[in-house]
Design brief:
- The chain is mostly beta strands and 132 residues long.
- It has 1 helix and 10 strands.
- The strands form 2 sheets. The chain has a 5-stranded antiparallel sheet, with no helix packed on it.
- Strand 5 and strand 6 form a beta hairpin.
- The longest helix has 12 residues.
- The radius of gyration is 15 Å and the shape is globular.
- It binds thymidine-5'-diphosphate.
- The site of thymidine-5'-diphosphate (TYD) has 6 residues, from strand 2 and strand 3.
């Protein structure tokens, strides 16, 4: 989990996220997800190249991260000044979205559908082959 600098004052909150400083990569792409709810599971993929930072700038959701080697952890994103860093080649599920959730996603690469692994079996194979 990452904690971002806050420069709020009597006018309101201000949170700063600088590429290469507050997060460990240069930001090449930003997208955001809203209008999901507690019935939805998003993500369900791994990326061969892209690293991400996810921040719930409003509302909340959970992120389950797996490494394909039996380790998994669930993170609650519910504060606009905290984020989760996701290195490449982790399997991620985003779920339990509050109705007001706005999930901001910062990515280290431009979009390339070919670097997404969307089949869990294929992911497991890839992770285990890498080790050999
Ligand atoms: P998807 O990867 O399924 O979203 P999530 O990871 O949140 O579950 O993306 C949904 C659609 O949007 C899919 O058709 C790919 C497209 N897309 C882009 O074209 N560019 C992007 O940067 C992203 C994240 C998705």
């Amino acid at each position: 989990m990452l904690e971002f600098p806050q420069r709020g004052d009597e006018r309101g909150h201000l949170v700063i996220v600088e590429g290469q400083q507050d997060i460990p990569f240069d930001i090449k792409r930003i997208f955001y997800i809203y209008g999901s709810d507690e019935t939805v599971v998003r993500g369900q993929h791994a990326n061969r190249k892209t690293e991400f930072v996810l921040i719930n700038v409003a509302g909340s959701c959970k992120v389950k991260v797996r490494d394909g080697k039996g380790n998994e952890a669930v993170f609650l994103l519910n504060r606009p000044h905290t984020g989760i860093y996701l290195p490449k080649m982790v399997w991620k599920d985003m779920y339990d979205f509050s109705r007001d959730s706005v999930l901001l996603c910062l990515a280290s690469e431009h979009y390339d559908a070919a670097e997404y692994i969307r089949e869990y079996d294929e992911y497991l194979k890839f992770v285990n082959e890498e080790e050999r």
